[in-house]
Input
Amino acid sequence: MHTETGNKAVVGGLIVVLLLAGVAVSAPLLAPGDPGRQNLVLNLIKPCWEYPFGTDELGRCIFSRVVYGTRVSLTIGVVVTAISGLIGVFTGLIAGYFGGLLDEILMRTVDVLLAFPGLVLALVLAGLLGPGLPNVILALALVGWMGYARVVRGAVMAVKVKEFVAGVRALGAGDWYILVRHILPNVLAPVIVMATLGIGHVILNAAALSFLGLGVQPPTPEWGAMLNGGRSYLRTAPHLTVFPGLAIMVTVLGFNFLGDGLRDVLDPRSQAKIPD
Amino acid sequence: MLAVAFGVSFVTFFLMYLAPGEPAEMIAITRYGAENLTAEQVAVIRLAEGLDQPVYLQFGRWLGHVLQGDLGVSLISGEPVLTEILARFPATLQLAVAAMAVSLLIALPAGVIAALKQHSAVDYFTMTGALLGVSMPNFWLGLLLMLLFAVNLGWFPVSGYGGWRNIVLPAITLGTGIAAVTARLTRSSMLEVLAQDYMLTARAKGLGEGRIIAGHALKNALIPVVTMVGLQFGHLLEGAVVVETVFAWPGVGKLLVDAIFARDYALLQGCVLIFAGCFVLVNLVVDLIYVWLDPRIRYEKGG
Amino acid sequence: MSLLQIRNLCTTFYTPGGLVRAVDGVSLDLVMGKTTGLIGETGCGKSVLGHSILRLLPANARIEGSIRFKGEELLCLPETKLRRLRGREMAFIPQSPATSLNPVLTIGRQLVETIRLHKRVSRQKAREAAAALLELLDLPAPEKRLAEYPHQLSGGMRQRVLAAMGVVGNPSLLIADEPTKGLDAIVRRQMAAVLRRLTAKTGAALLLITHDLRVVAGLCDDVAVMYAGEIIESGPARVVLTDPRHPYTRGLLGSLPAHGLKPIPGVSPSLIDLPAGCRFFHRCPDASPACGEVWPSLVKQPDRQVRCLLFAQGRESGKGVYGRDLQAAVV
Output
């Protein structure tokens, strides 16, 4: 793709992501009401001026819940990606740099874990550990680090044979110094792209866990959990289903745009080929 | 390959130790309920299931059973786990195949056309659609489709298993998310192939556009797509868990979720093992197709 | 009678960086039975010229001017009609044999397809014809080669397969784009022999695009030298190669090993931002201040055409010591 389109995607994605971050931070200001306050008299009402997204089966304001849900989803997305990114990058670095038996063991582990469909493993982990935010984060982080490890390992193996590494080593630099100061910066670009796309992916999976009832539990305003709650009222009150899902999609779309754009910008391929 | 299979069973077995509490106690709770649980009941289970033995012995025994096709007995139904899974397996397979068909039917033409008409309205439309597709949670899409086509229009049943009408909505739900990824890959792969020198050769020969695309470009462009489709089978299984739950589709995914809620550990282990086994198997098949498609690899391996 | 008449051809590419004027006002005539060499550095537009003749250009390219083949204007021809000419009347042997054959199809499949495209014969007959053709081009064990994939062949073998693919339709015009690029000396000589035999046998006109002066000297009747999108000198190969006039042609000959391997200093100008005067001005050892301002036109001389102010308005002084030196060196 074009670097220009890449730039546009980055700007567009960044705007969405920053807006969402703004919503998350200023949720108490934006939300018209308390996301937990029930009002059984005013339950399942359709979107109107007072309740822009309507109310749910317990009469809670869906707009407020969606706004507060931003906090939960972004927290999970960022924290899980940070943890799995750190584990993955560290594993990839040492596997790629030191090679040998260590590399063999680590990469076999990655192979084995990648043999499980990620969400299935996360589901089982979350189910066994029990529901709740910390366990959801743990489960998703444990199944999400392998991709980073593979990519970083590949990049390290390509970088470590370059002359400048030998040069730095000849100057007496230690392994860790070389790894952190010289190799890490060179493999960072793909990691940044992966992590950006990863946040979107994690948010999607976290919502799926909550939707299945194995993630963040009600009454916490989480989008997936809200969808699960709204399912039973699909016939009578579809707005319970529409708005939380829309929130998930917009959020994930923002991160996907940003990640795609970053990939295009960080890895520009020449587009017009002129024969010579 | 064998090492991965061993690793997979190892992980599956030790997953259960992540649950808080002693396994024998957990099983006892599942069987008798937490309220009227006695220490004797737990002790009996511990002895009967061999849970008093060292862990590596337990693993060895379990692995031995698994290799003989014995995945244990469901704690809830008392049926052998393998029987339960096999009973549900055809439904998941049907859904997976239908969803894959839906995704390929959408993705391959869309990706190829988008590449041929790069920067056109068709291209932007397809790629925007693809980006929406990967960003949309499939459980939400499932609910929306259900709302529109089942609840409002009444064209298809809301949920359940049976005739061909039942599979339409789940297959579309599961297929579109995967189609998005495949379409993007098909497009970029096709674009790369179109820029290759051999495309110029084909045009210089005087071949028509259709024959160039079908005879020369497609086979090259499909090589990475085939690999990707294999990897996506994993996503398909993930998606199946969610979609089967949404549409009450009686497959292995639904079974897994039910097993988690029922804390039926034997069934849980069995489902996980089956999922991983399918995934590994499909990737093996994909490797074979890949070798068949790409003669460069075929001859490297053949020597 | 000229088979192909190119008049004032301009091929421009629209790129994010700006308009690239890859071919800028080129006129050239190709004659039946004659071989014309088109030489120049990488990026001078010589391959683009070759592609322009068959209109094998990406969508971001625009061709202007006139290309007449047997009197027919190619630039106005609809794509379907043009396609019928490709491979049959005008064939193209692409450069880089490593990537110009489809990696996932066998040699046989690619050759048979080409043959059947131009002749109504059975698959079996086409396969036999393909084997015979490969044999004609000195490819050992042709039957075995047909069953193989491109990556199993050496560079020289692939180049010969491409040459075979080019001539199956008995074209009257053959365009060979760097047919000797990346081949070692022995294979290069074989390839030259193959091309000579093919043109002798079919009587086709051959446009040989190359940067290899030795191939031009060995094969060509005429030669045209391109620089930054323009032809700067053209004429009979013997004349131009032994008595080069344009400072650039002299520089090219001077960079040959036999002449002391003196490379021309500097790089050719960007085809996006072309200088106002002579395009060779910045690298020219004989440049005068006027050369930086006045764009030289192609001047007809009795034995050739030259695009240089030194030879405009009857100024012959530029020939000087330089030319005589080189003449001695070549002969």
